[in-house]
Amino acid sequence: MKICVLVGSARKHGLSSQVCDILKHHFNRRSSLGNFIYLAEKNIQFCDADNFCEHSPCNVSDDVEMIVEDLRLADGIIYMPVMHAYGTNSKFQAFLERAGYGYLRPLHRPLQDKIASIIVIGRRYGHTAVYAQIVLNIMLNKMILAGSGFPVLFMGMLGGALDDSEAVESLDQTIDRMHVVHQRLHPVARLQTHHPLSLHPNFDCQ
């Protein structure tokens, strides 16, 4: 299974980086392919709200097209926003507006039926609001939400990511759920020989 992880944090050695390491371990254990996309490193312009994208592709020139192509090639997508001011940070918000509203609309929602899940990184308060926003974005793009039954919420004030046992357990169950849904949608995947974890040189966590 090929999984793209949209990483929202701009911090090189923060909590998001620790969660990325946990994800790499899970991907390796399940012989999945992991593609970590760090939005902080990408050129993502704000939506210009010209509404031309209702009938034709977005004409804003940036990295959104390249990111969307990576998502189109994946079987699953993990949204990993970081919480700022009770919402997600500006770069992640810009991507949601561009990809969720205008960019994918004239392309007839090419992420339809992709398996999606969410990991929210932050401190106290606002986690569930950010989670709910991403859920609505997933629904907008007609994707399939896979979860453990509990949102995966990592709170930095608890220490390192591995110290948050409830979040780690929920994350583990969520990744398992993504694989179960993928196998049910693609039964042939059960019979295929999986390749070991292969990460692009630029996919290493920062």
Distance between the termini: 23 Å
Name of the level-1 CATH class: Alpha Beta
Mean pLDDT: 84
**Total DSSP E strands:** 8
Q: What are the low-pLDDT stretches, counting only 5+ consecutive residues below 50? A: 193-206
Give the biggest beta sheet: 6 strands, parallel
Overall geometric form: globular
Beta content comes to 15-25%
Please identify the structural class as seen in this structure.
alpha/beta
Which value, in Å, is the CA radius of gyration? 16 Å
SSE pattern, N- to C-terminal: EHEHEEEHEHEEH
Q: What is the number of domains?
A: 1
Instruction: Give me the CATH architecture, please.
Output: 3-Layer(aba) Sandwich
Let me know the CATH homologous superfamily: Flavodoxin domain
Helix content: 25-40%
Reported by name, the CATH topology is: Rossmann fold
- Number of helices, counting only DSSP H or I runs of 4 residues or more: 5
